[in-house]
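Table 4 source record.
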Amino acid sequence: MNDDKLPFSRPLLGDEEIDEVVAVLRSGWLTSGPRVHRFEREFASYVGSEHAAAVSSCTAALHLALLAHGIGPGDEVVTTPITGPPPRTASSWSARGRCSPTSIPARSS
């Protein structure tokens, strides 16, 4: 890695993390396996919730959050103008294409 530049994000991975990845690969469960279920249970307990659901992306997480809050057709979802597609995509999915994702205009200083 070029140390002359500030990295966007440098992962902090040790032997424990590497061992867990190898164990997942050897288990044959790359998605929705026993480790995911254990993570969901432990995370729910940690945050004091009865349930937790692991998902594969930010878009999927936002979609579930909007559904959980009853966002649907005719609702407006306000988001930041400095973002990628996930908030707008999740809003659209939650309302089956009949929702208005709106970006807050940026103010000049």
